[in-house]
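Students often ask what a holo structure prediction actually looks like on paper. The answer is less mysterious than it sounds. You provide the chain, you provide the ligand, and the output is a string of discrete structure tokens encoding the 3D arrangement of the protein together with pyridoxal-5'-phosphate.
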Amino acid sequence: MNGFATKAIHGSLLRPEVHGALRPPVYDSVAFEFPDAHQIQLAFEGRKPAHAYSRITNPTVDEFEQRVRLLANALGVIAVSSGMAAISNVIMALAEAGANIVTTRWIFGNTYSLFEQTLKPWGLESRFVDMTDEKALSAAIDSQTRAIYLEVITNPQMQVADIDRVAAIAHERGVPVVLDGTVTTPYLFRSRDHGVDVEVISSTKYISGGATSMGGLILDNGLFDWSRNPKLAPYAKKFGPGTLLAALRRDVYRNAGACQSPHNAFLQTLGLETLSLRIGKSSANTLALAQWLEKQPKVHRVNYPSLASSPYFERAKHLFPLGAGGILTFDLAGREQCFAFQDALHLVRRATNINDNKTLILHPASTIFCEYDGEQKAAMGVRDTMLRLAVGIEDLEDLIEDLERGLAAL
Ligand SMILES: Cc1ncc(COP(=O)(O)O)c(C=O)c1O
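The corresponding structure tokens follow.
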């Protein structure tokens, strides 16, 4: 069983199912009972694996985690309640007050806000560099750096860093790389093969199967020696390569309580089964639309890493041989034109999500980034002239017809 789709469909843990059900059941139970007091003690001490309480582990969530582990060839996986929970859990597990992380302003707006607004008052410094500037990256790392944090294709700037080089620089300095792989998933990008230590994913997006449910994933690729991290070193003797995930289950993940619900795990396991089909179609649609938009005189600029005109074209070919996912951005003359374009659309929905089955459009500067002033937006690579198209799996001709409507309104 080697193929991605085969593993996604057949890689089930819960076999044999008691009634022979082909779809694993949803264990919507908070607690699980034990035959005697000694067994429950062993479970609490971690000496005998068992489900005791669903905030910590649950069989349906476990099934989802194990399927993702198999697909990504990761050491281990923890599923959480949202993408933001995955990011915050990992950073809180790795870093402490007085420490720093090296990241970039070219990241999802809420992630930037997590670093600058939520975690800063707890004493964590975030250092912002351009991830394509190796010198700046290297210079920002010091003995207090606990992680390099970046996104696989930045949203909405569509920048692709040389992830292999970022990992090499980080590892020379004994620092792990944490990468947000939401927009590629393990189908388009094999993070382990490019030196990424920890991948975080918002499974709300592609994996949920069409915006059915919120979810997040933490994947430890098993590459980093966690005894090098001061906060995790005490766990490392006992847990070895599994230290980060063991520490999460005994500390931040357990205590912050951002667990995934069994019902969402069920929906997201179902989503995994069709992931390769949907992401393949959405990537193909996106490339075709990017090429079409580039030819339109009213469109000033199109950003998509698989376009030959993208500065990241060669890198994207190397990192994402199966396609660069479902997000593109394009620029019109100004904000007014961006609004008029959106308002003329019939099929494409005005909504803030990505990787849905439906194609969605958004003006990032007036929505996700509205809390930042002009200068901050410029530093974040968010232009007032820019629209983001999160491309779904509809028929291409219908999408083009709708975008023609948008252009006609200008
Ligand atoms: C790249 C990226 N990472 C993380 C998130 C956060 O995910 P969630 O909404 O599941 O918390 C998003 C949400 O849009 C995202 O685009």
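Residues 82-84, 108, 151, 155, 180, 182-183, 202, 204, 214, 216, 354 surround pyridoxal-5'-phosphate (CB under 6 Å).
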